């Protein structure tokens, strides 16, 4: 038991998870602020991110808090292809996304984009070219326009086009002010599907080269989930997604499945993987 100064007593089982959350938050803060500058100086990060051909992962080893996550992993991500990450909970799927998006850099082995080592690529340049869709979408108490543009200087025409491609046309038509419609705190006046489509529109207007999706449809019902998944697979970006859901006739549109298991990654065509799963 731990006694706080105000007389409140907390059990150690409650306190430890909170300490872990604070530790993670601190890492994120350092990445966003001084950590990025220091890291770029340390690794001589002077190259811009380019993804015209492929990202290669070669002989990758990675441990997290003394636990081995990946051991001698090698695979490629081809531009424009759609990849589905499969594997048991805790296998390392989210960790792989963090490695490919430069959240983690203390790995052994190589990650290169068009032949340039990740360790030499400016993190800011990578961030300009990637987007994320998570199960929980954060929205500002602001207009639909600003929630898609994220306060960057996109034109109304660009945001409107991205909205239509993301399947938001119906929402905009029923809102009196269209793109200028104000959203409530964290988008409380939107459905789950509409919230996710705003995430997709953000990636489209940004012209992201890579879209990372972590359980983007898990909180949606079957009908909405199918629509959102189909929209994700129809955009031009390279997609790297985690999903435990299978949508018949849609999930097979992924080009490849990367199965994360026992510290290794095996690559299959989506058709091959799901045929084996069905047996």
From TrEMBL:
Q: Mention any Pfam family matching this sequence.
A: ABC_tran
Q: Which UniProt keywords apply?
A: ATP-binding, Nucleotide-binding
Output the SUPFAM superfamilies linked to this UniProt entry. Answer: P-loop containing nucleoside triphosphate hydrolases
Report the residue ranges that make up the ABC transporter domain in this protein. 55-279
Q: Name one GO molecular function term.
A: ATP hydrolysis activity
SMART domains recorded for this chain? AAA
**Listed InterPro entries:** AAA+_ATPase (IPR003593), ABC_transporter-like_ATP-bd (IPR003439), ABC_transporter-like_CS (IPR017871), P-loop_NTPase (IPR027417), Type_1_exporter (IPR039421)
Protein name as it appears in the record: ABC transporter
